[in-house]
Automatic annotation (TrEMBL):
Protein name: Leucine-binding protein domain-containing protein
Source species of the chain: Frankia alni (strain DSM 45986 / CECT 9034 / ACN14a)
Signal listed as a keyword: yes
Gene3D superfamilies associated with the record: 3.40.50.2300
Matching Pfam families: Peripla_BP_6
Keyword terms of this UniProt record: Signal
Presence of the UniProt keyword Signal in the record: yes
InterPro entries named in the record: BCAA_transport, Leu-bd, Peripla_BP_I
Top-level taxon of origin: Bacteria
Leucine-binding protein domain boundaries: 14-339
Stated family: Belongs to the leucine-binding protein family.
């Protein structure tokens, strides 16, 4: 794909904060930052940046613990950025009170923490973890499953979300959900997998990073688990496939993004990444940083006058039917209507696909909004 001619940004830079999980002992995802930086470079070269001015990404690397998350949040306030983006983090509940409390808009492609779902001044382009859980529940209901075992990384946002949001939508779909926590960075999950499979689940679902997926898939293979597998985007990595050969094949992928297909947005993603950060693997988590930054640039396309936290917030609240970067035709609107009980989520939809190795096939979109309706 050739990038069409566009508008180059000029003038004084607009400072956008970007907090990324990088350098920690358990979780380090440099590809998320690289995806964000590629999106910013593309927006600056082709989309006129933000308000015609170039985006300057102010990066802070969090080690995915409360102390470094707090340090990054405070650093963003001190740097006087006009918005803060995150690719993915388990510490949104630490970041949001500081950033939103300073009246700086907080944006993400994929919200995971409770405070990222409903806080004023927070915007998640995708339905993120709630929509993923909702589409998993819809799929399980359609297949006639009665019990699903969900293996989740033991971080507060994931465990709380799985229990508080996952269990009700699965129950609404007539499916029991067992939530099993796996310690971060655990190399062997055999004991947890063994006890979960004793309850005879109809399907096995994984929520976590590539390290988590690797240990759980290896345990599945060790105990001979034959149930259908549900996975999220970070599982779909060469590292997982190499460590547990063939484990991903046939799994159902639930994700807010499409990076593999011939869809225009997927091709744009691959083209931008190849141009600006050619050494970055385009599977796994890189797309979350790309979605966050390019989504912000698209949603702020019409902004005029002084670009301030207040003008960014009001422009985002008015954003309607914005094309989701790498979203396979999904759009987002940040007026609080997608899932009214979770007003920070700008979409209730997800992408569903079947994996052949690490390649997504039979890609389609699913709307889970009805599962979150009152009553």
């Amino acid at each position: 794909m050739t990038l069409p001619p566009g508008t180059k940004a000029a003038g004084a830079a607009v400072k956008i904060g970007f907090i990324t999980a990088e350098g920690g002992s358990a979780v380090s995802l440099p590809e998320v930052r690289e995806g964000a930086q590629a999106a910013a470079a593309y927006a600056n070269d082709y989309l006129g940046g933000i308000g015609g001015r170039p985006i300057q990404l102010v990066v802070c690397k969090s080690q995915e613990d409360a102390a470094s998350a707090r340090t990054c949040a405070n650093d963003m306030v001190e740097q006087k950025v006009i918005a803060v983006g995150t690719g993915t983090t388990g510490f949104g509940d630490t970041l949001v009170p500081i950033i939103a409390g300073a009246k700086i808009p907080y944006v993400t492609g994929t919200a995971t923490a409770g405070s990222e779902f409903a806080t004023d001044g927070v915007f998640s382009w995708t339905g993120a973890f709630p929509a993923t859980l909702g589409t998993m529940a819809s799929y399980a209901k359609a297949k006639g499953y009665k019990r699903v075992a969900l293996f989740v990384t033991d971080v507060p946002a994931a465990i709380t979300g799985a229990n508080a949001l996952g269990k009700p939508v699965f129950q609404k779909s007539g499916v029991d959900l067992d939530v099993i926590s796996i310690p971060r960075g655990a190399a062997d999950a055999t004991s947890q997998v063994t006890s979960a499979i004793a309850k005879k689940p109809d399907a096995l679902a994984l929520v976590g990073d590539a390290t988590h997926c690797t240990s759980v898939f290896k345990a599945f293979q060790a105990v001979g688990a034959t149930q259908p597998k549900f996975v999220i985007q970070p599982c779909v990595s060469k590292a997982v496939d190499d460590a547990a050969p063939g484990a991903l094949d046939g799994s159902v992928l639930f994700t807010p993004s499409d990076t593999d297909s011939d869809d225009t947005e997927a091709k744009l993603y691959r083209t931008v990444m190849a141009k600006y950060t050619p050494k970055t693997q385009t599977d796994g988590y890189a797309v979350t940083g790309y979605q966050t930054v390019l989504g912000l640039a698209r949603a702020l396309k019409g902004i005029s006058g002084d670009v301030t936290p207040a003008s960014v917030t009001s422009t985002l609240k008015a954003a309607k039917n914005i094309a989701m970067p790498a979203g396979h035709g999904l759009t987002f609107s940040c007026d609080g209507s997608a899932i009214p009980s979770l007003k920070a989520l700008c979409s209730a939809s997800s992408v569903e696909a079947t994996l052949k190795g690490t390649k997504a096939t039979d890609v389609k979109t699913v709307d889970a909004a009805s599962l979150f309706a009152a009553g």
